[in-house]
Amino acid sequence: MTSGADRTELRRRYEERLQLRVPAELAALSELSLFAGIPEKARDKVLEKVRKYMHFAAYRRGDVVLREGDYGDSAYYVVKGSAEVLLGKPAAADRRAAPRVRGGAHAASAKGGAKPGASGMIGRGHVPGTVILSAHPAAEIAPGGRAVLEAGEVFGEISALSRYPISATVRAASDLRLLQIRLPGLRMLQAASKDFKKFLDTRYRERTLGRHLRGVSLFEDVSPAVIDAVSEKAELVAFQPGQVIVEEGAPADAFFLVRGGYVKVSAAAGTSELAITYLRTGDFAGEAALILDEPWPFTLQALEHVELVKITREEFRRVLAAHPPVEEKLWAATLARLKQRGAALQSPVSSEYMRMAMDTGLIHGESVLLIDLATCTRCDECVRGCADAHGGEARFVREGQRYRNWLVPTACYQCTDPVCMVDCPTGAITRAIGTLEVQIDPSTCIGCSNCAKRCPWGNIVMVEQEETRPDGKPIEVATKCDLCFGRAEGPACVQMCPHGSAVRISFKDMERVVSTLK
Amino acid sequence: MARGVSWGTPGRSPHYAPLRAKWTFLGPALGLGLLALVLPLALHAIGWRGSVSPGALTSPHAPFEARCEECHTPRAGVADVRCQRCHDASGAGRLTGRAHVLFGSGDPRKAAASEPRACVSCHVDHHGRGTRLAAVDQRQCGSCHFKSLSAHPEFALLRTSTPDAPGIQFPHERHMRELAKQNVAAKDACLRCHEPEGPGRDLSPISFARHCATCHEKNGSLGLVEPIPLEDVAAPAQLAASGVSLRPEEFEESRGRIAKTSVRHRDDWVVLNLRRLRRELDPAGFAAERAALAAREAQLARRQALAAPLAGLDADELQSREAALAAELEGLEARLAGQAQAASTSAGLDRLREVAAAAAASGDADAAAAAQSLAAQGEPLRGATADTLSLPLAEAEARRKEILTLLDATAAADPELGARTEDLRRRLIALAPGERPAELLARVRDQRRSELARVRDELALRALGVRPPSVALLAAEQSGLRDALAAARQQLAAFDEASPAPALDDAGRTRRRAALELLSAPCRKCHVLESAALAPARVARPRLVRARFEHAPHLMQAECSRCHQGIEASKQSSDLFVPGVASCRECHGPRAVRADCASCHRYHPEATP
Amino acid sequence: MSLAEVLRPKVPRNLHATVAASFVALALFLFVSWRWAWSPKRGLGLAFGIAAALVYVLEMLYPARRSRARPLGTALRYLQAHVYLGAFAFVCVVIHSGLRFPGGTLGWLLLLLSLWTTASGLFGVWLQKWIPAAMAGGLQVEALYERIPELVEGLVAEADSLAAEGSDALDRFYRQEVRDRLGSLSPSWGYLFDVRAGREAALDPFRRMRAYVPQEDKERLEDLASLYTDKLELDAQLRLQGVLRRWLWIHVPPAGLLMGLVVVHVFAWVWY
Fold it and tell me: Of the given ranges (A223-237, A324-338, B48-62), which has the lowest mean pLDDT?
């Protein structure tokens, strides 16, 4: 229960946030130099379409705009005033620490998953927690340091586009007026205006791409000159959900590095399709084709909105020529990839699990709750335990898709790149660095149900509270499974099942999946 | 596209589903549990005990089934006093574990130190109407003793090394030769005298009349008594007044001597005169024996007094008995406490001197002299405590006899001291060899305590409304006591018949001695003269006390000589020829004839007085 | 799943431990009763009785586990402890009685209730192993027990709209032969023996109807058949899940009764 003081604060924040739901005025938007790149004729039309994703926001001095570690879904354009960027000291363990998830989803891979390439899955990049904001024009800010952003600066678009956690806290240094452009708006602007896209891309290319490349094991210890050259020549491309990126059998002509989103890697096996693996942020593909000088041995398909860095064949060859160690690593990666494919052929089970996971979207989840229907006695102890751990209301329902003997109930999968976070106007839905529980703070949530609508599997449920809104309807709060954050024994569903039928696993760890699900 | 059968849930609910209530099953379970708890206890409280009874009682106990309190004490199980209410109504404690240890080992100290065993630890009831409570599981014996016949030690009968003097001369060899001359087969020869299946006994006791008289008392006479000077014996004429029946034709008086031509076994005249002579020749022994008899009579009398069952007393009597016992217990405790501090001989010696003075004052010079001599003897031991004193067994017995005689004399001299001497005599008799006075007192105190407990328990039960058990339960024990008491009194009377005699000088002594020899001549064919009296005939070693042996089933299997080997060559009556346990094991064992403890042994001693 | 697979213990180590402990207890009993007289009131007999009573009290921890996680941690461990300790406790009860029949009413009641509780518990274990396996193996649909009526209503609505789109023949067939049965739940007991009992017969009308409907309706007919199959599976779910919920009635209330009588038994021992 919230106390009196909390309530007034809540009210104030609520009202403050309400203003975020107000789309920006067309007139105010047209004035901004940000949109100068859009052709005159089309500007109004584009802005009209996009304006519902753009809001003006006012901050008083000292208000925090962005918090380090949060997931962002918007780009911010400073209209008036100044903001300061504060970089906290990086936690020593965070650099290479594997994300923790209770419920054992990552139990097997906790030991070696962090090191790039160590778990046997090749092409995995390291997702760095600390990414320098591309906004800063100068060189990187030293840890513990501070920089100032003036009017005309843009920040936060990398986090939004790539779904990386925010790397530095941004605070209003004076009374600040910002234009917040949310991700759908960003995308639309990118598509509508080449200049806008170029503006964003250039900033990414100049500041961040190099660092991303460094995160990839291939380019780990390559000389800065090579990185710069590659960054310059690389192309930034985006794909819609379901769009095929490359077809198997087509001539291979590029190397792809995934900036954001999930990509499905599959190959044809007779008449059926064999899912080999998936690629996520920081992974790459195409090295086999380029080295072996063969057509694409697999199909790449975007599972959702995907942004890729594309390096052409000549450019890539040049890099290889200039830096032989990269080629060696590539060979290793190629072999591994081929082995993967062979393994997929030989173990159709794991391939099938992979395909199922990719088709149903379970691949996104860091911790998926599965119930073994062959031992589940439908006693509802899991739901009861969940309810007891959350003050009387359960956070999932024992309903959902069934796969073989396993039921996938509607319990949040704790996606790696949570789409539910994208549209949250208040930032109530968060995930901290180093953990994987996506949590909704009930006192911040205003019940707009954007997250509930966005979740493709309906894992977020709106629950009515006792208080009512000003217009008389009851306030709703979004609730979802939070892996029993703060509970010493871990997720209640797993702990309370008397038959051990409930397990939480991640479909990214295919060995564990096969051993658990067979 | 075809819909297909759903995999999973056909339609998803937008809300969370309500759950089954938590207490659906636990509620009724708790309710039933409380019911199961309350109902029997309520029934129990109003008196219906069937709800908690673990089984039916054996049929003799069936009348008590409705009232558990008759046997059970709340929170204390079944106390021994309850069983003893009916099964040991005289309170002799015969059926306790201590009695068993005493019965088995003969050592009161060991008995006192032994762990008490409750009756119910072996006799478990509530196993149905048909159970025999007396049939105790063999394994119970094994908890203290060895487990099987194969571990049985050699019989104590054979382990004691020195036989007592048998008191009779009987060579088996001679007798069996005689029987063989009469063409009696060897296997029947034994049975001529050792008759099996005597009434209530295993083998009939040897009785002169049945077994010896046919050969030894031919024509109704053992032999004859040579003439004895008249002044040495009591003539038939003198004895007519005392009611002893005599046949004048058997006597021959001539020249101041008297002879008896025909002497039967246990001839009245001979026995009487032997006693008189004994009294003259061995007054100490005579007195000692008389004192022992008197003590036994007193003991039996006291037991009979105690044996009046509590059942026959009403509440007032019970309460007065309780008060008396409590007072006595207090006194005993005080004495024990005093004993603990200074158990020395000084007090005893002072007492002796007092006795001597009293005797002197009353004119009994002999008694005074005896007391003085005892005191003088004891002087060197003044100040010694019980721990430092120790006497060899024989000497202790001798001392006991001396003091008993002295007490007799004291009582005779001064009847007013009768009660005190009585008390002292009882205590002296009760004193077991090796037992310190404190231990005796402790024993007495324990006995009074258990009596008090019995009385109090009886009072408690009367208050509950439980009827006392029937008086007829004691009938057997009381009649046994009565008979024993009568016999003891008869023997005592016989002793008293012999009137006190004046002191003898040496010449008189010699003459008396000669008379004794002549008188006992016919008897000494078999009997042995021991310090002026015929020794009682007894078996060389104690017979089986802690076990019973039935000859009858064994005689069906084998002849006497199978176990009693070599008896035909025996020339002395001190020979025993009882086989050891090894011979039993020839037939008895785990896979042969039954070999459990109860087939030979008893736990409780018999109720003989 | 074959019977052997279904009955396999989840944690074989617990089964081995329980069997071993039972054997040890029996051996101890045989040895002691051979040497000394055995009595339920004293010594080892009493110890076994106290052990059984204490274990029965511990068994009650299982329903209480919701509020406490320690010391065993997961509910799986609690249930394992409940089942195996319960079986062992029954062995202790039998040994406590000295392998003799009890004498009085209370003794008989206790023995029979112990037997019933343990047997019903083991029956429940068997049910809980076999029914989910049968459901997982034979059925595709999965539903919450309380929502089954609602789901059936949803199926009926879907079928209604499907039939409305189709031809008259289909519509007539639907209204006459399908709709009523689709809308009414019929959880037959036959599903306990075969989760797909009666399916062939129930789907026969649809198969027969194939010849009589126009081409464009054939797919709708298939859809109707699959809707009906969904409903049949929901029937089976209703019956089987119902059994899985209700079997506890034969286990928990007798267990409560048993506990009450155990208290009376202990009282009798203390008082007498």
Answer: A324-338
Q: Is residue A432 pLDDT above 70, yes or no?
A: no
- The residue-averaged pLDDT of B262-270 equals 85
Mean pLDDT of A285-301: 77
* Residue ranges in B145-282 assigned as alpha helix (H): 156-159, 172-181, 186-193, 213-216, 236-240, 268-281
pLDDT, mean of residues A425-446? 74
Percent of chain C whose predicted confidence (pLDDT) is above 90: 45
Q: Specify the amino acid at residue B468.
A: P
User: What interface predicted TM-score (ipTM) does this complex get?
Assistant: 0.89
CB-CB under 8 Å, B18 with C249 = no
Using pLDDT thresholds of 50, 70 and 90, give the confidence band for residue A7.
confident
What average pLDDT does range A196-209 have in this prediction? 74
Instruction: Give domain limits for chain A.
Output: 23-191, 216-357, 365-517
CATH 3.30.70.20 fits A365-517, yes or no: yes
CB B89 within 8 A of CB B473: yes
Residues of C in contact with B10 (CB under 8 A): 141, 143, 151, 154-155, 230, 234
Contacts of C142 in chain A (CB under 8 A): 373, 399, 402, 407
At A113 the pLDDT is 30
- Closest CB from C140, C146, C248 relative to B6: C140
Burial class (CB in 10 A: 0-12, 13-18, 19+), A300: buried
Put simply, whether C270 touches B (Cβ < 8 Å) is yes
For strands A299-302 and A263-269, give the pairing.
Answer: antiparallel
- Which CATH superfamily groups domain A23-191? Jelly Rolls (2.60.120.10)
- A23-191 and A216-357 share one fold: yes
Query: B33 CA to chain A: closest CA distance, Å?
Result: 24
Amino acid at C99: L
Does domain A216-357 bear CATH number 2.60.120.10?
yes
Chains near A (3 or more Cβ pairs under 8 Å):
B, C
Name the residue among C147, C229, C252 with its Cβ closest to that of B13: C147
Q: Where are the domains of chain C?
A: 8-139+247-271, 145-245
Compare CB distances from A495 to C74, C132, C244 and report the shortest one's residue: C74
Chains touching B (3+ CB pairs < 8 Å): A, C
Residues A150, A170: Cα–Cα separation, whole Å: 12
Distance in angstroms (rounded) separating the CA atoms of residues A285 and A308: 10
